[in-house]
Design goal:
alpha/beta, Rossmann fold, Alpha-Beta Plaits, 3 domains, 13 helices, 16 strands, binds 1,4-dihydronicotinamide adenine dinucleotide
């Protein structure tokens, strides 16, 4: 497949208009839609586009991806990519780009706010005053200065929380299965048990994995200090909810802030029930850790910039399902991008085409994964169109594109 026209992008689900601007600046023709179309309409719609931008509601299943015959890239304008059949997208030669960093700060700020709220029982006091109850008290309400915050999972969010907490005068310790560079005076803990035992507040920032599922249950909570607090804005399955509720009811924990749940409603307004409801000093929020206007804008920018880089240079270094290539453009040379099935003989077929055309390769990178190979090749202008056309017709080729053809 070669393109001889402007690239057409469809951005669904009300993606921030900043994303359109980034793509339009590269000559992409962008169509914006507020919603995700009905499932049945998707296969017909996606046929018309080279780039798709979605958020969490549009399901890009195997059938939808197979219908998208012109598709060259997908932008997931969110963090999760469960809504996309990543294996199928990879097999079809389509890289998927998401926005892992854009809402880091939003989550970190929420956690800092909640540490103060828990320490001062602000949720309860606010509710009481709304109900007309005046309950001015200092007992059990403390400053956070000098207290220890224990961070489980010291990645993007965890380390940002550590920086902010230290600025508030807290001592910060963290536990991570990987070796992480401590920020400021943050201190690594030798084990989860050690971290739980030394912390006044424990905040969870781990991914959803087999190891993190139910990593905080009754026995871990028992290792936490009496009167300490637990915060979870990572994934719902990380905490055993009824065991946390038990520890709050018994008074072993003085409070909790929970943003994520094992089962969450799919849409706003529907009912929600949890064992954590109606307990003292428990802040419950509807998975809003990353939900800020700044994060939405940053997501639009992060994903559209990755897409634009891919469209203009073939760079895939931030793709979630694709071999990573980041090769600087060579001035005056023409670049061919070829995604092929990872089987023996592909490179010798391509080399034959190149030598038949008497072409000179100025730069070339091939990176493979188990299913596909991704070749980025820079040639002289005179021969690149013919070479590209011939490579595209090889039976092993999945997607072939000459950058200058758009
Ligand atoms: P990250 O990948 O940058 O950091 C995760 C850290 O956890 C890594 O350092 C990793 O080594 C560590 N880790 C993994 N398994 C561990 C284990 N068993 N014990 C200790 N450490 C472990 O991820 P990031 O961006 O910091 O996100 C963290 C979590 O926050 C994710 O679960 C993500 O889904 C969630 N999140 C929630 C949001 C919300 O709205 N509440 C918004 C954004 C992210």
């Amino acid at each position: 497949m070669t393109l001889q026209r402007p690239i057409r992008a469809l951005l669904l689900e009300g993606i921030h208009p900043g994303a359109r601007d980034v793509l339009a600046a590269e000559g992409v023709s962008v169509t914006l839609m507020d919603k995700s179309p009905p499932k049945a309409d998707l296969p017909k719609l996606v046929k018309e586009y080279d780039v798709l931008g979605i958020r969490s509601k549009t399901q890009l299943t195997k059938d939808v991806l197979d219908a998208a015959t012109d598709l060259i890239a997908i932008g997931a304008f969110c963090i999760g990519t469960n809504q996309i059949d990543l294996v199928k997208a990879n097999a079809n030669g389509v890289p998927v780009f998401n926005a892992p960093l854009s809402n880091t700060r939003s989550v970190a700020e929420l956690i800092i706010a909640e540490v103060v709220m828990l320490s001062r029982q602000l949720g309860d006091r606010s509710r009481e005053v709304h109900l007309g109850q005046w309950n001015k008290r200092a007992v059990g309400c403390r400053e956070i200065r000098g207290k220890t915050l224990g961070i489980v999972g010291y990645g993007h969010i965890g380390s940002q929380v550590g920086v902010l907490a230290e600025a508030m005068g807290m001592r910060v310790a963290f536990y991570d299965i990987a070796t992480r560079l401590p920020m400021g005076n943050n201190k690594p803990a030798p084990s989860l048990a050690d971290l739980l035992g030394q912390s006044d507040f424990v905040t969870l920032h781990v991914p959803a994995t087999a190891q993190t599922r139910h990593m905080i249950g009754a026995s871990e909570i028992a290792q936490m200090r009496s009167g300490s607090y637990l915060l979870n804005a990572s994934r719902g399955d990380v905490v055993v909810i009824d065991q946390l509720a038990g520890a709050l009811q018994s008074g072993h924990l003085a409070g909790a802030a929970v943003d994520v749940y094992p089962e969450e409603p799919e849409a706003n307004g529907t009912g929600f029930v949890s064992d954590l409801q109606n307990l003292n000093n428990v802040i419950l929020t509807p998975h809003i850790g990353g939900s800020t206007e700044e994060a939405q804008e940053a997501i639009g920018r992060e994903v559209s910039t990755a897409l634009a880089k891919f469209l203009t240079s073939g760079t895939t270094s931030s793709a979630v399902n694709f071999p990573h290539v980041d090769q600087p453009l060579l001035h005056g040379k023409h670049r061919i991008l070829n995604v092929h099935r990872n089987v023996p003989g592909v490179m010798s077929d391509i080399t034959r085409i190149i030598s038949d055309q008497k072409a000179n390769i100025f730069g070339q990178v091939l990176v493979t994964d188990p299913a596909i190979g991704y070749l980025v090749m820079d040639l002289d202008q005179e021969v690149s169109s013919e070479v590209c056309g011939q490579i595209a017709t090889l039976p092993t080729s999945i997607r072939t594109r000459r950058l200058e053809d758009r």
